[in-house]
Amino acid sequence: MIDYESHVDKTESRIDELVQIAMQIGAGIIDVVVISTSDISIEDDLANMCREPICAFYGLSANCPPYVSSPSEFQNVLEIYKYALAIKIDVPTGWLNTDDRLVVMKLLHEIVADIERAAIELDYTNSKAFAAGSCKEIFCNKHSRCRLLTDNGECRHPKYARPAIEAYGVNVHDLNTTTGWFKDQNSKEATVDKASIGAIYGLVLIE
To answer: What is the distance between the alpha carbons of residues 129 and 131, in angstroms, rounded to a whole number?
Structure first.
């Protein structure tokens, strides 16, 4: 007979451990919140922003549209999972329109991928990580082709390249509300120029 209370306690303990590992991996630059996957909002219109107007990297990576799941298919994927780790890195908004964003996005991809591996080691064997930005732009901008699409070869950066979170229509505004990040931001000192701070986001799905 299964001791359900003990099972729940063990699950919560492992998740707490994963959060602590995630914070160590993030080296103090990330915020991490455990949320229910049922609280992740998916919208077709947001995913369509990759297509209209067409993103410069549309169709150039196996981790971007049209090669990733549709929003409805991703919603079905979310139903398989119970929890997600929401990951946020605050950045100056001015960076988001410069090449500086690529440095931060690369770091985000590396962090969520490392968290994914840590989750797998804790027996969340089907964990999957997602991060902001096209891996083609971040990791392979000096290459004309994505090997997975054109050469039937292996990804040049399988350890860290992850699917783009925006490709699935994840509503990060709602994510900020669910995690309490908006509340945290509003509680900061009035001297902070909030308009000068933006953020990039990642998700790690765990069962």
So the answer is: 7
